[in-house]
Amino acid sequence: MIAIVGGFVAASMWALSTLCTSRSSRMIPPSSVLAWVMVTGTIVVLPIGISTGPPTDLDGATAGWLAVVGVANVVGLLCVYSALRIGKVGIVAPIASAEGAVAALLAVLAGEQIAAGAGSMLVLIAVGVVLASSTRDEDPTIRRHDGIAVTLAGISAVLFGLGLYAAARLSGEIPLPWIILPSRLVGAAALALPLALTRRLRLTRASAPFVVTSGLAEIIGFAAFTVGSRHGIAISAVIASQFAALAAVAAFFLFRERLARVQVVGVVAIAIGVAVLTGLQA
Fold this sequence. Notes:
Layout: H1 2-24, H2 30-52, H3 60-86, H4 89-96, H5 99-109, H6 118-132, H7 140-170, H8 176-197, H9 208-229, H10 233-240, H11 243-255, H12 261-281
Helix pairs in contact: 1-9, 1-10, 1-11, 2-3, 2-8, 2-9, 3-7, 3-8, 4-6, 4-7, 4-11, 5-7, 5-10, 6-12, 8-9
């Protein structure tokens, strides 16, 4: 049950982050959005990490997994932020949510056991992602933008899945703040600092609340997933992918986004797959 709760809290927070990012990335460049999200995370998590003390048994393998978490999360977020700048939330979010299936697949390949019938639900979720990414818009410019957004979202899904699996591997070995910190430190040092030094770091009064909210939601979501993954990587990861359905529904009401019927079918398939998977595991 902890895996289910952790996954659902992560889904809620990542849906909120996705909605905020879809707005802020249209106000300032995606690189600046990501930089501020990482800076926000560093400001919040670093003092907690210092107070708990650094990991005492940090070996080569653990350091390697931490590096995977840091790089995969930062590059994945940059891809999805860029996709949200030109694409619809209802398209980008479901594709990016395949991160859960990627992490679950890695967990299964590593030997983790999941409930009977869960495999078919993973397939249903994957089919839903494909349908949600379909577009039939006749405007060539919109179709091209949708194609780029789909590609970027797909890359982010793979990277996020790898990062989630790496974080789950570390969840029982080092304190939680030090699992969350690597990507924030990488983003702050490799992105925010160079942008600030070259005077290309952008922030407006309108975008500030969105980027700060995204930064906080990313932290809470990642922490919830990591705790949940201690009791089941595959299940927690797939339930966390429900953020796509939550974000798509919210975008329909908040931003008046309209999706094609096949895309709606895809989003529904994802939601059903996650719901049934939750019931099987419970």
